[in-house]
Amino acid sequence: MGHTFAEKLLARNVGLAHVQPGQVIDATPDLVLSHDNTAAIIRTWRQLELSRVKHPERLAIVLDHAAPAPTTQHAQNHAEIRQFVAEQGIPHFFDIGRGICHQVLCEEGLIRPGMLVLGADSHSTHYGALGAFGAGIGRSEVAALWATGTLWLRVPESIKITVTGRLGEWVSAKDIGLYIIGQLGADAGNYASVELHGETIAQLSMESRFVLPNLMAEMGVKNAWLAPDRVTLEWVVAQNQNADPEFAAHFFAHAVYPDPDAPYAAEFTFDVTALEPQIACPHAVDNVVPISQVAGTRVHQAFIGTCTNARLEDLAVAARILRGRRVHADTRLLVIPASARVLRAALHEGYLDTLLAAGAIIGPPGCGPCMGNHLGVPAPGEVTISTANRNFRGRMGTREADIYLASPAVVAASAVTGRITHPAELE
Amino acid sequence: MRVSGKVWKYGDNVNTDVIFPGKYTYTLTEPAEMAAHALEDLDSTFATAVQPGDIIVAGRNWGCGSSREQAVICLKAAGVGAIIAVSFARIFCRNAINNGLPAIVCPAAVAALEHGEWAEVDLATAAIRSATRVFPFPPFPPSVQRILAEGGLIPYLKQLLAAERS
Question: Which ipTM was obtained for this model?
């Protein structure tokens, strides 16, 4: 009997021939992520009365959640983190404006297939897009990892999801992800490792692939994995043009693939041939309907941003829709690129000019208003349509606001009409 | 370890944004301040009325969404002694154990316990008691019991590191 991706990767991590679902292991992550929450982690770590973190080169810290700092207190947090980074000699530090942590670590070539990455952020599942095992953990656990380098993990059961069929025009990876969550439910992947298989996944661009493991966090998964291939390598190499030539040669050296006869706790197949764009309605990510059921709903704000959907491809589709059009007079369109590189590339490609000509507001790379900190939080009674991954009550700052989640194409089209709109309707 | 108090009963898929809103995550740092906002966007009566030892009883997937540890810290600081649920979201469950707050899976107790009634959780005997009934639950693995007994991961680790030094 074969083994799943999660079983093979975790067994190798602890130097065992095999591990079984349910087994608890002391794992050694290759990389440990924290973001603005690093300030709180430092205070926790200080309680352990250690002078040095164990493996500074295995830590990555990105300031993105409230960046640039909206208040003096946020600025103090950032200052405390910068001081700690200098004191401990942490090489992988990315200050405000570099971008959203998950995007930045992938762009920087810090994530490679077969790595174990633990992060104090629930969307650390993101790293599965490059064939790594990415899982979210708590702040105390990161403090413990700074002290010891190891953490207990339960070997998860695995779920195999196969996606087949050809996507229609204006239908994207976001729609696939929302559809799967809507069909299976918010806890369908709880504690589990989800593997995404199938021709439809293999044919997605790298930028689209990132959407899926990121969004799978909303199904409760421990990690989500896509098979790394030539598309994966080409994207990472393109991001790291000055990298050591050995980087590409060794990129797949530690890649892990599930055995063909691996046992799964559950298997699902979805044919997306006739899929409409999908919308997650307030106030749950699994409250998903086809766009035809909510088309026409008034929106006050449209937001293209976050770790889910703010890459160059997402800005490109928004620019394509907004070219020669205007954002509706009663609607605001916020565009917050996922990283400084995305922002610069969008400038170079002319997308920013198109978006600005249409009346969009461009924000500095980072998480923006996703969790209600700053840069475009809604007023009570307002409706936002967003490319983010969460629409929980109060998520963007007030419990009296509705959030609909959709693809960048649908958000851009809705910004034009001021109502939830299928992009095909504008043609 | 034994806690008892009033049952606060909630439904399925209660997420960490309604337990502790994201807008406070980098500005409220003291547990007592966090407690004042516990469950703010789910039940506005909770933070002022909760008493030490009270027990949250919930449906499936309690604590889904963000990994923010304040979702556990605010409840513990508010006085919550234990949470009993049909299931927990995985990061919330880890955070609860790591902060010394028992997160107990017991669907039978969830089905039976009513909002406002008295209940007791006894970790030593792995049992939940109401005025009229007893619900056993599977005991925590020894490693988790050790963390809970020390009051959380950091106190536990502190002791381990001290033992290594001496």
Answer: 0.95
pTM (2 d.p.): 0.97
Q: Do A144 and B40 touch (CB under 8 A)?
A: no
Domains of chain A: 13-271 (3.30.499.10), 279-426 (3.30.499.10)
Contact B60 A187 (CB under 8 A): yes
Rounded to the nearest angstrom, the minimum Cα separation between B3 and chain A is 24
* Residue in A closest to B29 by C-alpha: A40
The CA-atom distances, in angstroms, between A35 and each of A41, A61, A269, A307, B100 are 10, 5, 36, 13, 24
Answer whether A157's CB lies under 8 Å from A191's CB: yes
* Average pLDDT for A181-197: 98
Beta bridge partners of A335: A304, A362
Residue with tokens 């421990």: A222
Greater confidence, B93 or B164? Answer: B93
Range of the domain at B36: 2-165
Chains A–B, number of C-beta pairs less than 8 Å apart: 128
Q: Do B153 and A65 touch (CB under 8 A)?
A: no
CA gap B156, B166 in Å, rounded: 16
A111 within 8 A of A117, measured Cβ to Cβ = yes
Say what the pLDDT of residue B1 is: 83
